[in-house]
Specification:
Strand content: 25-35%
Number of domains: 2
Distance between the termini: 102 Å
CATH class of the largest domain: Mainly Beta
Order of helices and strands: HHEEEEEEEEEEEEEE
Largest sheet: 8 strands, antiparallel
Structural class: alpha+beta
Radius of gyration: 34 Å
Shape: elongated
Length: 244
């Protein structure tokens, strides 16, 4: 009994030593502090999200996608309609996004090419660099044939591997003439690692038919046009534009 009494007395002493806090804050002040804390955290969260989003966009446009302004009319009507229709007086320039990585090259692809050298074929079908100066500028053209394929041009037709290819993308009333690069050599076989390219506006395109361009070497390809994003009302995916 004495032991129990002692325990009770100790409990009473503990309870007596507990004191209530002085001047407790009103509930309104506590709520205000909570709101300020929540607001601060929300601002931090928004800032973090914004920084992450900007970082992703910068990395995307630095290493994967590049905006390109289309100058000239060799790819009409697919790209840059400055010289046709209602936009003839607006001097409007199409803008596209091109991918510089992770792409295969195939028929119908629209490529951005740094044409600093031109490549032709000798009488044995071997690649050589002629004395003729290259166009030495960045061009945008469509792939017509890849390495290992044969190309022939006659009677306004483009013939690849013995078959006339269907080209719904070319400009109206376009004619496909020989421009001197391979005169007397058609049909030619495109060497591996090279490409035969042409513009969609055949009457106004300097492309693989011309000596100043000739064949395109793989390491001259800067990127592949993925989509047209401006003008907005003409937004278009370009990866399947060859289907018409």
């Amino acid at each position: 009994m004495e032991e129990n009494k002692e325990n009770i007395e100790n409990t009473d002493n503990i309870e007596n030593n507990i004191t209530a806090p002085e001047n407790p804050e009103p509930e309104e002040q506590q709520d205000s502090k909570k709101k300020k804390g929540n607001l601060k955290q929300d601002i931090i969260d928004i800032a973090e999200s914004t920084i992450c989003t900007v970082f992703v966009i910068v990395m995307l446009f630095t290493y994967l996608l590049h905006p390109v302004n289309i100058i000239g009319h060799s790819m009409v009507p697919t790209l840059n309609n400055t010289y046709t229709g209602e936009r003839a007086t607006t001097n409007q320039t199409d803008k596209v996004l091109m991918s510089t990585v992770f792409f295969d090259i195939k028929y119908g692809d629209i490529l951005v090419i740094e044409k600093d050298k031109n490549y032709l074929l000798d009488e044995n079908g071997e690649v050589y660099e002629p004395d003729d100066p290259a166009i030495n500028e960045c061009i945008i053209k469509r792939v017509i044939a890849c390495g290992g394929q044969t190309v022939d041009i006659h009677d306004n037709h483009v013939i690849v591997d013995g078959e006339i290819i269907n080209e719904p993308y070319i400009a109206e009333n376009s004619t496909t003439d020989d421009l001197g690069a391979f005169t007397g050599q058609y049909p030619i076989t495109v060497p591996e690692g090279y490409y035969f390219v042409m513009g969609d506006n055949r009457n106004h395109s300097t492309d693989s038919r011309a000596r100043s361009i000739g064949l395109v070497k793989k390491d001259q390809i800067y990127g592949k046009a993925i989509l047209k994003y401006y003008p907005i009302d003409e937004f278009d995916i370009l990866t399947d534009s060859w289907k018409g």
